[in-house]
Amino acid sequence: MSKTIYILFISFLQIGLFSIGGGYAIIPLIQEQVVNSYNWLTLQEYTDIITISQMTPGPLVVNTASFVGIRLAGIPGAIAATLGSILSGFIISIFLYKFFMKHKDIDSISNILKGLRSSSVGLIASAASTIILIAFFGTASIGVKGFSINITAIILFVISLFLLRKYKLNPILIMIFTGVIGLFFY
Amino acid sequence: MIKNLKIYFSLFKITFYISAFTFGGGYIVIPMMRKYFVNDLKLISEQELLDMAAIAQSTPGAIAVNIAVLVGYRISGITGSVITCIGTVLPPLLILSIISFFYKAFRDNRVISAILKGMEAGVAATIVDLIIDMGQGLLKEKNWLLTLMAPIAFIASFIFNINVLVIIISCSILCFAQTYIKSRQGGR
After folding, report:
1. Which chain A residues contact residue B32 at CB under 8 A?
2. Distance (Å) from the C-alpha of residue A110 to the closest C-alpha of chain B?
3. A57 and A139 in one domain?
4. Chain A, window 50-69: residues with a beta carbon less than 8 angstroms from a chain B beta carbon
5. Which chain B residues contact residue A93 at CB under 8 A?
6. Residues A63, A146 within the same domain
7. Which UniProt keywords apply (chain A) (predicted)?
8. A3-19 residue pLDDT tens
9. Residue B132's CB: how many other CB atoms inside 10 A?
10. Which one of A60, A89, A129 has the shortest CB-CB distance to B158?
11. Are A84 and A114 contained in the same domain?
């Protein structure tokens, strides 16, 4: 039992350490550990957990860790796996933050932070484009034949964006609003 | 002491609340954090939040967790970061633990699918709203490299599917080199 918990922790520590940038890029990385190396889940179960992860709040890696952990070793397993998945991010992000704050008077270092901020705008825009493609056309790749245009989603998007820009509405209210509309229209 | 406890409690409450609504990827937490910590409580500035987002993105692990950790750290040190981290991890941990017992029924539930389908448009709008604000900030930047970095990163990531780590490292080297060369020229 305690050995399983230890292996869960170490395995998700590795996943956490190598999952940079987040999003869909880390799906094969988790699959490698959870399905191929340890046989903790079948491929079908793993596909299910990806689906469920998109249906529940929270990061994919934390969701997978909780799910695998609880199935293998109950609540302690879920906690160990989740802790492993976030530990490296916790330590490294604070370390990097302290580094940039300590040296913010050195131009070449503060310029790196400014550059990271600019590139993060681009990377966020890239993630947003994928979400827009999925919401409007039901596909994540451009130029696939047989896609359909979702008019409801486009109208909902325009209304939401208007409410956000004009009235600075709380994003959480937007989530609740679009969720309720979805319930009635889909 | 009481004041500290009050801040700890609100750190936990807000991150827990935000995490419970984090659908559609980690970036959605940036506008939510902005709403609570920058606009309402005024505990951090918008610039600081964007710095934290950039660092969180350049660090391994989930972006939503990393941002929460940094916000907590900035407001209340290590204790704060542990609190915001727990606040962020707890909702998915609890929800997934419960769902793991009947995940097949959950996966096939039409009502939940419909709500989520609706939310996709909300997620898209919220992130686009953030990008407009961030983009306006970039256009005011007088450094051409910094302004160009955003569209270059976008094209590299979205069109060419280049690994995020490669983009982040190249960007860091370029920005470091730019100021280094400038300072050398200035020194002559």
Report:
1. 171-172
2. 9
3. no
4. 51-52, 54-63, 66-67
5. 55-56, 59, 61, 66, 69-70
6. no
7. Cell membrane, Membrane, Transmembrane, Transmembrane helix
8. 899 999 999 999 999 88
9. 13
10. A129
11. no
Could you say which residues of chain B have pLDDT below 70?
186-188
Mark whether A97 and A122 lie in a shared domain. no
Residue of B nearest to A174 (CA): B122
The nearest alpha carbon in chain A to B52 belongs to A97
**Mean pLDDT of the A38-58 span:** 86
pLDDT (0 to 100) of residue B188? 47
Q: Mind listing the pLDDT tens digit for each residue in B94-149? A: 998 888 888 888 888 889 889 988 998 999 999 999 999 999 988 888 888 999 99
Q: Which of A19, A117, A178 sits opposite B121 (nearest CB)?
A: A178
Q: Do A185 and B118 touch (CB under 8 A)?
A: yes
Count of structural domains, chain A: 2
Which residue from A125, A123, A103 is spatially nearest to A115, judged by alpha carbons?
Answer: A123
Average per-residue pLDDT in chain A?
88
CB pairs under 8 A between A and B: 359
**Residue numbers of the domain that contains A23:** 2-102
Instruction: Give dist(CA B140, CA B131) in Å, integer.
Output: 14
Say whether both A165 and A144 belong to one domain.
yes
Task: Write out residues 64-123 of A within 8 Å (CB-CB) of B.
Answer: 66-67, 70-71, 75, 78-79, 82, 85-86, 88-90, 92-94, 96-97, 100, 107-109, 111-123
Q: Do residues A96 and B126 make contact, with C-beta atoms less than 8 angstroms apart?
A: no
Rounded to a whole number, what is the distance in Å from the CA of A22 to chain B's nearest CA?
6
Same domain, A27 and A77: yes
ipTM over 0.85: yes
pLDDT of residue A143: 58
Contacts of A149 in chain B (CB under 8 A): none
Helices (H), B34-143: 46-57, 63-99, 103-107, 110-140
Specify whether the CB–CB gap between A85 and B93 falls below 8 A: no
Q: Of A120, A87, A172, A160, whose CA–CA distance to B22 is shortest?
A: A172
Please indicate, yes or no, whether residues A77 and A136 belong to a single structural domain of this protein: no
The pTM for the full model equals 0.89
Same domain as A177, residue A154: yes
What's CA B107's distance to the chain center, in Å? 27
- Residue B60 main-chain phi, psi, to 5 deg: -60, 160
Question: What pLDDT shows up at residue B180?
Answer: 87
Q: For A131-159, what is each residue's pLDDT tens digit?
A: 898 889 877 666 555 667 889 999 999 99
Domain limit, last residue, from A102, A119, A140: A102
CA dist B162 and B71 (Å) reads: 29
Amino acid (1-letter code) at residue A107 = D
